[in-house]
From TrEMBL:
Name listed for the protein in its UniProt record: TolC family protein
Source organism: Chryseobacterium oryctis
Keyword Signal: yes
SUPFAM superfamilies, alphabetized: Outer membrane efflux proteins (OEP)
Gene3D superfamilies in the record: Outer membrane efflux proteins (OEP)
Keywords: Cell outer membrane, Coiled coil, Membrane, Signal, Transmembrane, Transmembrane beta strand, Transport
Length: 450
């Protein structure tokens, strides 16, 4: 008998060891994703982030384009013409008329020209506007990244809470199954009623159905997270095991709405509109440029490119240097109208800036209120879980000694499950409020380092 006990004990130890080994292998095979890693992949993979980066790169080429207007413009031209029929003209010499052909069968012209802008207000304004455009796209890229970070963080914690709810239901199923096994043993020995066993099996079926619903919910939440991360939907991911710790200290610091990316983007857009107005005003200024030309001209009776003076083709060079001045005098009021339109665009954007500031202030005040309420609710739900666990343990103990009935046991288990799910949902509400507050403070980028 003693030998059988020792063998059974060894068997249990062997089974436990096997579960530990296989359990460790399973965990090691899973790719755990932290919030920082999820954000990093999203900023690398998402199309929005890539497009924003391309716009910044495009702005660099806009600067090159604007700078080109202040540099010398060099061009070269060449042409060759064959005149099968040469125009004739009549000349009068002392009353005697002579018919003369004006031209040669072949003419050729090769020349190069250089134009250098000396003064053009539009060129200088355009260069400043191009640099400001680059800054605008950089700010817009930051705003895009913040939106991506917010989406990823929200999706990440949604998965976390769904998994916590699933763990709660699985724990409830395990506890209820233990109760069912006890009741079954009692029924088999004639110490309990068959209806109690049936009621417990019904409870297990309901919990199993709820468990399957939550498994589906976890899969859907993970798919949403993978979408925001910009990775294939069929990629297997697991969240990093980590506790959610409330951060009441977030309420202590104040915020400056001017630091929000939304305001910076609008202010930079206003700067661009001001440059647009200056560029329009530049149409009223004169422009000055220096131009130079140099070339060769060939004419004769044969193909000029392969023949010279010995074969009847005369070649001669030419050159010119000129100063071009263009002074606008009257445009019918068109330039003035364009300037007024540009000014209205600036005033219109000023209204958008003021409205955005009001909206961001509202978001900040609401986020502070929401996180205060979330902290209160989270503390209350945590205390409720502790109380429900105490009631559940006492009820199960009382049931084993005949001091509580099955209904009380099942009710206590349901109450504990509901309390844990309420606590998990309170965690999600808190994290969503926390993300909104961090966004309202213009500090979403700090989530990359948490």
């Amino acid at each position: 008998m003693k030998r059988k006990r020792i063998t059974a004990k060894k068997l249990k130890i062997g089974i436990a060891a096997a579960f530990m080994i296989f359990g460790y292998s399973s965990v090691s095979a899973q790719q755990q994703i932290s919030l920082q890693e999820a954000i990093k992949q999203a900023l690398q993979n998402k199309a929005e982030a890539k497009k924003a980066a391309l716009q910044v790169k495009k702005a660099e080429y806009k600067i090159d384009e604007a700078r080109a207007g202040a540099l010398p413009q060099v061009s070269a031209t060449g042409n060759i013409t064959y005149n099968p029929i040469i125009q004739e003209s009549v000349l009068d010499f002392g009353g005697q008329r002579t018919v003369v052909k004006m031209g040669q069968p072949w003419t050729s012209n090769i020349s190069a020209s250089v134009y250098q802008t000396l003064f053009d207000q539009r060129v200088f304004t355009g260069l400043k506007a191009a640099k400001s455009t680059r800054e605008f796209y950089i700010l817009n890229s930051q705003l895009t990244n913040e939106q991506i970070i917010e989406n990823v963080a929200t999706a990440y914690y949604n998965v976390f809470v769904q998994e916590e709810n699933l763990k709660t239901v699985e724990s409830s199923y395990t506890n209820t199954e233990k109760v069912r096994n006890i009741i079954k043993s009692l029924v088999d020995n004639g110490l309990a009623k068959e209806i109690d066993l049936d009621r417990t099996n019904v409870q297990l079926t309901n919990i199993s159905s709820n468990k399957q619903r939550l498994i589906n919910g976890v899969d859907l939440a993970k798919n949403a997270l993978k979408f925001y991360m910009g990775i294939p939907i069929d990629t297997e991911i697991e969240l990093e095991e980590r506790e959610i710790e409330p951060k009441p200290e977030l309420l202590a610091s104040v915020t400056n709405i001017e630091n929000r990316s939304e305001i910076k983007v609008l202010e930079k857009q206003k700067e661009l509109l001001q440059y647009n107005k200056k560029a329009t005003e530049a149409l009223l200024y004169p422009t000055v440029g220096l131009q130079g030309n140099y070339g060769w001209y060939g004419v004769g009776g044969k193909f000029p490119l392969t023949n010279g003076l010995n074969n009847g083709v005369n070649w001669s060079d030419f050159a010119s240097i000129g100063l071009n001045v263009n002074i606008p005098i009257f445009t019918g009021g068109a330039t003035k109208a364009k300037i007024q339109q540009a000014e209205i665009d600036i005033q219109d954007l000023n209204q958008d800036i003021e409205n955005t500031k009001l909206s961001l202030n509202l978001d900040y005040e609401n986020s502070v209120t929401n996180i205060e309420n979330a902290l209160i609710n989270l503390k209350s739900m945590k205390e409720n879980v502790e109380l429900a666990e105490k009631v559940q343990k006492n009820t199960q103990s009382n049931y084993q000694y005949g001091l509580a009935n099955l209904t009380e046991v099942l009710d206590a288990e349901n109450a504990l499950t509901q309390a844990k799910q309420n606590h998990a949902n309170a965690l999600l509400d808190y994290k969503q409020a926390e993300i909104k507050l961090i966004k309202a403070k213009g500090e979403l980028n700090t989530l990359q380092n948490q």
